[in-house]
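Open question from group meeting: does this chain pack into something compact, or does most of it stay loose? Before anyone orders reagents, we agreed to write out a predicted structure and look at it together. Recording both the input and the output here so the notebook holds the full record.
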Amino acid sequence: MYAKTTPIDRKNLLIEANRIIREHDEYMHGMEATEVEQKDGVLVFRGEFFFDQDGIPTRKTTAVFNMFKHLAVVLSEKYHLQD
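Structure tokens returned:
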């Protein structure tokens, strides 16, 4: 099933993901991937989403969502989680 990707554990994958986040042009202070799971070959990243006091998404929320999507695209092509 994962013949074209390299197995990696969650800890090291999150280290790689957070390195990519920090080096990205769209990085904002506080962006961090804290969880990852695999769904049908796609790595799904999670972390804080920065809503305002009324629970409404902020500009930072959109940036975090886009960053996690970027991670899913880039890292799903390289890795799969080893259990």
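Observations to bring back to the group:
Residues 6-81 form a domain with the GMP Synthetase; Chain A, domain 3 fold (CATH 3.30.300.360).
The beta strands are 6-8, 35-39, 42-46, 79-81.
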